[in-house]
Design brief:
single chain; mainly beta; 3-stranded antiparallel β-sheet; elongated
């Protein structure tokens, strides 16, 4: 812990230092066509391919 102040690592509240904790629920979105699908627990959105255009999905 930086500075041993009990606050943990620097950065945001998200797992990878992002601004928000995302959690298991949510949506995956295609960056090309905008299609949204429900996020599957344990499967990163980037591992999902858009069923319409075949592009890797991103977390919304």
């Amino acid at each position: 812990m930086p500075g041993r102040n009990g606050k943990g690592p620097a950065g945001g509240g998200g797992r990878m230092g992002g601004p928000v904790k995302v959690g298991p629920e949510g949506m995956c979105k295609c960056p090309k066509c905008g299609l949204k699908i429900e996020h599957k627990r344990g499967v990163p959105c980037s591992a999902e391919m858009c069923p319409q255009c075949g592009v890797a999905m991103v977390r919304e």
